[in-house]
Amino acid sequence: MHLAVKKFLVSVALLVLAVQVSSPVCVDMPPNTEVVLGKPIKLTCISCMKREEVNAKTQVNWFYVTPDKERILIFKFDGLPQEPDTRWKGRLAWNGTKDLQDLSIRIISTTLNDSGTYLCNVYRQFKFDNYEPVFTLSKEITVQVKKQVSRDITSMYSEMTMYAVLIFLTLWLLVEMIYCYRKVSKADERVQSNVTHLVVRTGVSNYLPMGQYQPTRCCNTVIITLHSVNAFRFASHSLESTPTFN
């Protein structure tokens, strides 16, 4: 009996957790304000609601505000999207969500005349047991339609800095390679001269054939590897026993 109750409580807890995780998150995002001529733009209007406020009647009206502050109704949503007969008709589309927290619309193909101020008016009437409060929200969006994209000064500066750093690193790597090549070449010449002198004075050529020494190249050191330990010992002994002439 206790095991069955425990399983039931665990199932309920997991169900509650799953509902909380899967519940939509409402985030108020800043709207886009610039668009290239002929491209679409989303007019963002977010109105977040609490979980207990989901049961509400929502209506949203979109207006275009002229320079004379005149409001022209261009789009309406009251359960279904509606487009009045304006110059925007046929170029607007509903871009909101089912829970009506995102009440955005989209201009499908922009023209230069679409530049200006747009107004989003939200009207909500909540239905609770004892009262029906009303909530209203107004948001303005200023849109600029341009013939071409204007580049941000900050992004241009960042791009120029990146190219300058790449050029500097390339030049530094080239100088480092030239310096390393010259240093290794000089080290090879000294090693070749020393080995030749060693062969001439001691006759190590019988024990150390040509090609049996390997200079390992590095920018800082040049290591000579002798394959025959006996030949190396013989050369050292010969150098010690060779008479010197004043």
Can you offer a commentary on this structure?
The chain folds into two domains: 26-146, Immunoglobulins (Immunoglobulin-like); 153-240. The longest helix is centred in the last third of the chain and has 50 residues, at 153-202. The strands form three sheets. A six-stranded mixed beta sheet has the order 1-9-8-3-4-5, with no helix packed on it. The chain has a three-stranded antiparallel beta sheet with strand order 2-7-6, with no helix packed on it. The protein has a two-stranded antiparallel ribbon with strand order 10-11. The protein is of the alpha+beta class and 246 residues long. The chain is elongated, with a radius of gyration of 41 Å. The model is unreliable at 12-24 and 204-246 (pLDDT under 50). It is 34% helix and 26% strand. Strand 4 (71-77) and strand 5 form a beta hairpin.
